[in-house]
Every structure is written in C-alpha cells, then in structure tokens.
Amino acid sequence: MTFTDVLVVGAGLAGIRTVHCLRDAGHTGSITLLNGENTPPYDRPPLSKDLLTHPEAVLLDEDLALNTPAAATTIAHNTRALTLTAIPVHPQATAHHPPPHPEPRWQVTTTGGECWDAHHVVLATGASAITPPAWESVATLRTLDDAARLRAALTTPAHVAIIGGGWIGIELAAHLHAHGHTITIYEAAPTLLAAQLGAEHGARISTLLPNITIHTSTVITNVTHDHDRTRVTAQPPHGPSWQASYDVVVAALGATPHTELLTTLPEAAPLPPGSPIPANNNGQVTINGQVLPGLHAVGDCATWADPHWGAITPGHWMTALTAPTLLAAAIIASDNNEQPPPIPRPAPHTFSRIGPHHIDVFGVPHQDHTTTTRVYSATSWVTFYHTDDALLTAVLIVNSPRDTAGARKLLAHGPTHVNSASLTDTTVPLKTLRTHP
After folding, report:
1. Does residue 340 lie within any of the structural domains?
2. What is the spatial distance between Cα 399 and Cα 376, in angstroms, rounded to a whole number?
3. Contact, 139 vs 251, CB < 8 A?
4. Which CATH number fits the domain that encloses residue 294?
5. Nearest to 229 by CA among 216, 246, 242
6. Residues 345, 364, 298, 259: what is their CA dihedral angle, to the nearest 10 degrees?
7. Residues 331, 258, 87, CA angle at the centre, nearest 5°?
8. What is the pLDDT, as a whole number, of residue 92?
9. Per-residue pLDDT, 267
10. One cellular component GO annotation, for this chain's record (predicted)?
11. So what's the pLDDT on residue 266?
12. Which residues of the chain have pLDDT under 50?
C-alpha cells in the first residue's frame, strides 16, 4: 500500500480545482488524483452547448490556465476507486509523540490494483446520466464518449427526440435545431424547467424555443428499437397513449451521483437512491449528523449545507469551481488543529446558453415564493424570487448581461431584503435594490 496526504477521487472540475486550491492554500504534502477516464480532465458544458461545432475536448487545464500534472504528486488515469475503509487511529500516536507523517485515516482500493492510505480523502466522483434499464437504444450526454457517439449519429439532418426538459435537454435541443435537425422534446412536468424555475417561468423560457415541438405533462413509458429507428410510447395526462419514431432519441433525465464508495463504510447509513453525499459547509462528509474526520465530498456527487442558502444541490459548474476553495481551507485548518477560516462564498450561480439566448440564475429559486418580473423585451427579462416581506432569494436573468454583476453583488452575502416597489423599474440598477446593507 502507498501513503498520500490527500487522495482526490475524481478528476472533473471539482476534483482538479481541489488539487489546485490545496496548493494555493499552502499545502505542501502529497496529493494523488484518481481520474476515472483515459482523457485528461475536460469541461462538460460544451458537450451540450457545442456538440456539433466543437468536437474536440475542452481540456480544463487549457481552459482555466492550470497545470494539474505539476500540482498533483501523482495522477492515475483510467482508475476508479473500489472500496473505502476507515483506518483506526494509531494507538501510539499522541500529541507528544506524533507519527512521522499525518496519520492515515482512510484506505482506498482501486481498479488498477493499488491500495492507498490517506490522511484526507476527497470524493469528487461526479454523477452518471439517468437511463431506465430497458432503454438501451437511447443516447445520453454526460461524457466525451457519449458526445462522440451522438455526433456520429447526427451527420445528416435527423428527427431527434429529447426526453427531459431540464437545462441539458433544452441546451441540446436549441443547438441541434440551429444545425438543421428537427427536434421534439418530451417533459413529464407541466413545463420545461419546472423543477428548476417553477412552472410559470419554465413556460416563459419555452418561448425562446420556436419551431421546436414540445410535449409537456407527457411521460415516455416505453422505448423500442426497430432497424435504424427508435420508437417511443408517450402517455399524455389525459387520453390514450401514442407512439412516434425518431432517428435519434436522447435521454436528458438528470444524473445520479456516484455514492457507491459509501456503501463500504459501516458508519454510513445507506443513502436514498439518487441522493448525493451529505456534507457540511466546508465539504466534510456528515452522516447522521456526525462529521467523518478526513472524509470530504465536492462537486456533482455532494450536497453542501450552507448557512445562508440551505442545501446547495449538485450539478452546477460554478459550484464545482468555487466550493473547492472552502474545502481546501478546511483541510489545511484541520491539519493545523484549527477551525476553518470564514471564507465568503458566492451566491449559487447557474448559467445556460440556449441557442443565442443567455440565462443566469443567482441564488436558490423557491417555487412557493412570490415572483416579480422586470420586462425589457419579449426575449429579455429579470425575475425576482422573494418572500412576502421582500426577502430576495433568487434572481433569474434572461438576455440581460448588464444585470449579472448587480445580481451577484445583491446576493453576495445571502438572501437580502429589497425594495419591492422598484423591482419592475427598468431604470433602477439591481445592485441598488437592497434595503438592509
């Protein structure tokens, strides 16, 4: 077995950012990075936004001006973790007679046959696309290999069905339609983006997708493959089901966090299916209210408990980019027997590009909150999510780049009270809406 101070399991954005944030924070010990793919770490948003126009991988080191091979002590490519085991504390390790290096607290075995002992393990294992078991003929879009297969199926104009009207589904729909393909979207909820924005505002986003057929409140109950066509069975809310065949069918049903490693821990109660790994605001894994020392989770596999925003759900690029700063600081503080420093965390931020349209969401939209919309044009508006006493919890910005900086500043310290009378006034800058500095 081999010792490493920090073992980072997963080499997506959150994983490599953890490596670099540790170095930036002054960590001088060894860092091992396990990359489950053969390809160097790459960016995922371009897979849906630029599938046909950018076939090459957008490597994160190039895109973010990083040098991960220099920052990590060891990188193991095409290597996944198999088991995670807690190591009992060395009985002779005391404050007066510490071991020669940080005491290993976790042991990880891998598909490459290695056995790593680590003082800290960071789970950045990501997530995989959800696909019902019987849908073998359906494409997904989560990895470079997924993108390559889908691109190969779309070399000529095709009729494409996209099952799922979340961010990835509508980004892909707009992109493919712009490149000559005929698109049909099936969504089980009443509108596109209903889970993310609420039905009213998801319906408004749908107006940005002209010439795309959209079936909402419609469940796909069966998918079969017949020669070079794929047939779906659709069940609307009322009336009989129907069938339709397509050249290509893509499932955009969300993602399931990779939490398998926790099943090998006797301390960890089984997580509900599809649930992310629970962590506190510094990324420390927390099971049944108890922090597991030296075990951390970040990125698409984890949900963090934030004191201002509540549970920060996974799946957002900006969260994977920024959260490792707090995690690295917590690791450094732990090694120095100190409390993590108070590091400001930006408001949660989701961004999307739907064809020519740019969308930003700052904060956490609550569907039971009041919404007020400031309209600039038919394709440009800002929606504010707030309580009855004008506590602002989220801002949705559609095609209004001048408002993004203001929204970021407005929510920089968490939900804030605003002047509700000025929300619809297009002449009032967003940054001036706060009523309680």
Report:
1. no
2. 9
3. yes
4. 3.50.50.60
5. 246
6. 160
7. 50
8. 55
9. 62
10. cytoplasm
11. 65
12. 94-97, 100
